[in-house]
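stage 2 :: seqdesign
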């Protein structure tokens, strides 16, 4: 049987691939077209013929769903305007709602991603601590609900209530806000500072810390908290900024079977 290989194991490919007769074929046009629409960091989802097809009369395509790293956005990048609903309360939030804050943390997260689940409680603790010091915080989910309905607004509201999120958790249904920020993975952290000009200026884009779901490194929030301490105290951040690592943001254009975890 044709198979899809990913980190979690083997999955059957949809029947649309079963009609091909050769064992070594390029990706079908639908797949190739979808891959061409991806930004460079997200184009880690590769389709290639397997070396040893399980049946000689059918092609076997191997889909590698590697972890996605946040891309390169220059420091000094200005926070894009957004206007998004909060499923829990029904309120519509905009960038202007955080104008009184000395700094703003924008997080791209979602419900289902194991990288987000790994940090969820610690994100809540860290943001609660710094919000008391004046930090503005907002979380945004931009995942396609066609492929991942568990990331839809109804479940976002349940998630925010269950984990007592101290920040608004907003739904980017069109995915326009994710594109404007250049966000490609969950979780992804954008820390902006106020510099007397509007809008906020990007100060830090990087990881929460070195902990991952399977590396047994304790969760500390060191990288992000260090950046927040610096931005709130007006100091320069002298340490390096490691990219955030997580699940790719699930865009509407991809076929369902390419929407890897």
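stage 2 :: out
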């Amino acid at each position: 049987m044709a198979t899809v290989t990913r980190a979690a194991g083997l999955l059957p490919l949809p029947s649309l691939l079963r009609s091909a007769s050769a064992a070594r074929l390029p990706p079908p046009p639908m797949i190739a077209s979808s891959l061409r629409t991806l930004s460079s960091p997200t184009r880690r989802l590769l389709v290639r013929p397997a070396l040893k097809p399980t049946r000689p009369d059918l092609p076997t395509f191997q889909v590698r769903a590697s972890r996605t790293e946040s891309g390169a956005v220059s420091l000094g990048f200005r926070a894009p305007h957004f206007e998004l609903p909060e499923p829990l309360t029904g309120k519509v939030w905009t960038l202007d709602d955080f104008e009184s804050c000395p700094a703003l943390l924008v997080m791209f997260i979602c419900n289902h991603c194991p990288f987000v689940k790994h940090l969820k409680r610690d994100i809540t603790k860290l943001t609660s601590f710094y919000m008391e010091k004046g930090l503005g915080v907002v979380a945004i989910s931009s995942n396609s609900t066609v492929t991942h309905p568990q990331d839809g607004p109804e479940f976002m509201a349940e998630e925010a209530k269950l984990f007592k999120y101290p920040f608004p958790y907003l739904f980017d249904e069109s995915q326009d806000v994710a594109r404007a920020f250049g966000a490609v993975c969950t979780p992804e952290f954008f820390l902006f500072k106020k510099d007397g000009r509007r809008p906020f200026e990007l100060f830090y884009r990087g990881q929460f810390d070195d902990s991952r779901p399977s590396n047994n490194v304790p969760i500390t929030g060191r990288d992000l908290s260090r950046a927040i301490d610096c931005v709130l105290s007006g100091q320069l951040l002298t340490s390096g900024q490691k990219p955030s690592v997580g699940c790719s943001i699930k865009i509407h254009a991809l076929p369902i079977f390419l929407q890897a975890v």
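stage 3 :: structure notes
- The chain has two domains: 3-66, 69-248.
- The mean pLDDT is 79.
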